[in-house]
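Case study.
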Amino acid sequence: MTDVRQVDVLVVGAGPAGLATATRLAAAGAGRVEVLDREQRAGGVPRHCAHGGFGTWLHPLTGPQYARLLTAAAVRAGAVVRTGVTALDWAGPLTLTTVGPHGPETITARAIVLATGARERPRAARLVPGTRSAGVYTTGELQQAVHLYEQPIGSRAVVVGAEDVSYAAADTVRAAGARVVAMVTDLPAPRTTPARALDARLRRGIPLLTHTGVTELLGHGRLSGVRVRHRDGRTTVLHCDTVVFTGDFVPDHELARRGGITLDPATRGLAVDSTLRTSRPGVFAVGNVVHAVEPARAVAREGVHAATAVLSELRPF
Amino acid sequence: MTGTYDVAVVGAGVVGSAIARELARYPRLRIALVEAQDDVGQGSSKANTAILHTGFDAVPGSLEARLVREGARLLAAYAAESGIPVEPVGALLVAWDEEQLAALPRLAEKAEANDYHATRLLGPAALYEREPHLGPGALGALHVPGESIICPWTTTLAYATQAVRHGVDLHLDARVEDVSQQDGIHVLTTSAGTLRARWLVNAAGLHADTLDARLGHRDFTVTPRRGQLIVFDKFARTLVNHILLPVPTALGKGVLVAPTVYGNVLLGPTAEDLDDKRATGSTADGLDALRAKGRRILPELLDEEVTAVYAGLRAATEHDDYRIRAHPGQAYVTVGGIRSTGLTASLAIAARVTGLLTEAGLDAGPVRELEPVRMPNLGEAFPRPYQRPELIAADPQYGTLVCHCERVSRGEIRDALASTIPPRTLDGLRRRTRARAGRCQGFYCGAAVRQLFEEARP
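After joint prediction, the assembly is written out as follows.
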């Protein structure tokens, strides 16, 4: 027999957006505020962003430090953060079924906040042809492999993309002791600060190929190279044993779609009004599941906004 | 590899594994199953359209027609016993023009000739009622209710697992480089050492012609025919209820849209005759062509994300039928030209090969019933571990999800790593559990799954 439990607010996803929302709600006395995360540790993507750039100018933090800080703040405010628990599906207008090591559970809430985040589009979804050889990563997998598990990743990597996350991926490749053979983008120029782009090219010696697309992955068993096409139609093979597909974020909207929540046709994120309400009454959405993708600090600020909207739902006057 | 085997089966695809399993019923026989790659089912067996056929459209009277018909019945029963996911969704051969519409009654007659009597012609209204998301312009369909979808990975693995548990020696990473005869014994030189056997079965799939030639035969030539397939996101699953088969015309067989037992939707395959037996890559042209055809068949399919792309090579030969030949003087049986129907026919092929071996003089000795195997369920139509409270209560690892897209638990990964034929690669683990097979392709779980895999390595 499955337990049915009542909470006031159920937040799905313990990344920066979900944790910030829960912190504000719990501090404002919203009652029992419960945050679920299917990972074993709370914090979301910053858990494996070993680089800095989190926190504030006065108090700079790395991603893992920031993840711990946000989690501690939520718990201190009185929110209950439960990890290793997956929200599976809807069992009623404001009821979710979950599973975890303690078995299945059904949880009903007065309001539900979806903060399920976003992920990078992997190679297959980008329809990059070629063989299915090993050594193909997204930044998310690469960072976890290197920073959480200290796994070897190969020796020569091509990074696909030239935005902030791509440069972070290049740093992670180097931190793992591998060489970045090239960064490849079909854009005319990198999308990052000029300082960062220059640093990668000049100090790190990483060539940046603009107006260039990856057309084929090569190799049997292990990746042996990627074929790229330049703007003039010329193709070249970059020899490498690792390729990292970066950026091109897609909102992780599985739970929302299972609940029939309307998507924004342009972004494929959840369609929300100015108070972050979705098309499903009592269900709010916050963070990168709405608009892939904004930095952690921005979505955490948005969480404060979401909490205000949820409070007005709980205490209408 | 010392001692002499009674039978060596070369090739641990679905056919070779089925043959080894059938031979395992004879406890007196010493059997070797010899595979060039690092896992069973690593060639054409892993990359097909995953359909359990009725054989309705086979060439009537052919060996293939008979073995597919028998094999379908045998495999349906075996799947139920072994926990291999099968969904009897049925097929619709959809006619998109007058020529295809005119071909449907002939296909219904062919089905009758193949002893399959359940087909029914559907008009457009009945067709669109069954498949409301079908693109506009379909004129009618032939309904073949007996066609099913099946898990090809679990099928091969179940055969091989049962074979190994009954004493068959599985030699992986053992590519046969040469075959010679010494005092009436086959001597196989492989990349993992030398192996001796009194009888030899060639189930080498794409390489069956090469091995056959080493034994002095020029019975057939294998021309690899590449089939690229696109796997669409699980959100597409509600768009399609049946296997949507193309109507075969003079211009070829066309592409199908089919649900998979994992809850995805397949689009494919292409059919490209190649000469490179390693050309299992996808191509931009192939994917473009498939997407254009998919847009016509099921327009909304193209709105969903692509989860995976793969390409398999069918072992096509110049013959229209299977080439299963005994060479009693050489103590040798060839199993060639097994095309995409081989998955369905596998158990019947195995029975036939065993029959040929004993007729040719193999003294098999007494026969026994095999202990059944129960494979982990990878199918959506049956409860998965995360959906089984009693299992989680007994072992919380089944409630600890590692691969979120496919909802694969730590317990399932642990079990696969400790199974009779443990995976040697992450891809092998994926075929045993579905871990990393979902829409994120490892963004969330890839590193965690690799960690569990590395920890379990000897």
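Observations recorded in class. Chain A has two domains: 3-119+249-314, 122-245. Residues 233 and 291 of chain A are 34 Å apart (CA to CA). We will return to this complex in the next lecture.
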